[in-house]
Each structure stands twice: as C-alpha cells, then as structure tokens.
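Per reviewer request, we include the raw input and output of the structure prediction for the construct analysed in the revised manuscript.
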Amino acid sequence: MSAVASIYTMPVQPITRIIMFVPGTPASLAAWGAALDRDLVRLEGDALHVGGVKDPVLVEWIANDGAFARAFSFGTVGPDILAQLSAAPGALVLHWPEDLRTARAQILDAVAALRDAGAIAVRLEQSKLGWDVARWLELFSDDHPWAWHRGAVSMMSGDGTLQSCGMHAFSLPDVRVELHGDPAAAQELATIFNVYRLAEDPELRSGHTFAPDASTPRRLVERWPDTEYPEGHPCHNPYGVWHLREGASIHPLGATVSVFIPALRVILTALEEQRGKPMTRAEVEATRDAAACIALPPREADALERSRGYADLEPELAWEQWQLVRGGG
C-alpha cells in the first residue's frame, strides 16, 4: 500500500479542542469525584461526563509543584486568589472534545459544578489566560462575544506585528496585523476582527477584505499557518492565522472552495516520509495539481475543516505554506 493510499485507512483519533487547568482544594482525583454534584456532572475514573457533551472529558490530577500562583500571575487574579493557589494541593487538567463556541453552555455547567466542588481558578491552556473561577463564569455567561474574547484570547507583539492567541478555543484562526508604531490601534483592529467572527461566523476566505468601519481603508485577508508556536503546543493554532494586509491586490473568488481529500498537507507529509527527503517546489506543485479535491460551498468547507481540527494549505500558496508547515522556512 502506498503512503498516500494508507491515509484513507488511518484510524480517526479523538480531537482535544480545549485544555483547562483548574486548581482547587480537593487533594486527589477521588476527592474531586466525591465533591462533585453528580446531578450536573460525574467523574468516573479519569473521565468527566457532562450532560450535553457526547464524548467524555479526559481528566488528570496533578500535584502543586509550587508554580500554581505563578501560572496566574499576569494581572487577571488578585493577591487573595494567588495565596489560595499557592496553598492548593493540586489541579485538574481537562481535555475537552468540544470547543467554547459549540459547547459553551455545557462547559459553563461543568465549571460551575467544579466551583462548588472546590475549584479556585480556571486557565485556558490555548492562550495561557486564567481567571478566578467566579470571574471566568461571569465572562463566559455573558451573551456578548466581547466577554468571551476577553476571557479566552491574549495578544502578543514582536517583530513589528501583533497576533492574537487563543481563537482556536473557538475552532477559529487567530489574526495578525502590523503595528506601525501604534500597538493600541493594532490591538483594537485585531479585537474587532476576532469579535466580528465570534458574533457572526462569516464565510471568510483568503482574498476577502475587512475594515472595522466605512472610514478605515480595507485590508486584504489572507490565511497562513501559525508559526508562533510549534505543532503540538497548546498555544499553536491548527486553524492558522488571518493576516490583515495593507495595500495588497484583491483576487477574484469563485462561488465554491476547492477542498483536498485527504488534506494536501497530509499527502505531502506522507510522501516526504516515504521518500526520506524534502520535496522540491515542482514536486509539491505537481502533487497539488494531481491531488483529488471536491468543490464545496464555503460554509460546508468551514464545517469540514472544523470537524477535521486543522486548516489545509491554501492551493495558490501551497509551496510557501508547506515550507512553514514542515519547518523549512
């Protein structure tokens, strides 16, 4: 069987959509299970069962290594909470199979039950942003996406750009904008763009444009792989990053999206592993041109991507993006 053909027989692995770090007063997994209100959630072994969530939430308990307070020491919790975190015997680490957009209500129910069982604070590992449990529940109980963004998404700056971190907690790409010496304006633009997507879930594709209002010049939207963190790191966004580009040319878009089946990046990975050496640009582009794909409406393409758990390469930028994905550029 060829490397590409074997892709079709690979077993489907469960996807972890978000990871939560939850320090609390119970001193073991068994103690957490005994403290939980079983009418809301139940902890059986290393699995948390939550009403409305189809698959169990895998759970581990870790002892306090003395760094719990430092993990929350970024100005989002007060001194009293930091003292409680220092004294906490340990924490739960929850691996959720659903994201904060599709299962927000169920995740809220679970966190409320954990609060009643002794949870002190909640940190989202996708952005390393943490809050005391009461504030976390307040933010995500709000019906406005601004509050969700405040609770889950952080901003990083460097090399003349600002990039958000944490939108993959909602199964969405992050955003990257140039600073131009004005970090506040860049952060405002990035936040508006992210909240717009949380609120409206638009059909967004490379080649579209975006502006927060009629008086602001429109920027070209183009998706690229996330290179801020390596694949496998909780902060790495597998859905990529929208770059908001100034002064770039606008490309005409068709009514459908070409979706590679299987994903082009999976095909290229298999071929390089089989050959034992990097592919050339000509080989990558020839593989792209010969690969099987289907034409889908943008909304269906988005749904397929989210079910798969990661973004594929942009066909027109396959070579450039493949260098980033495989670590060659």
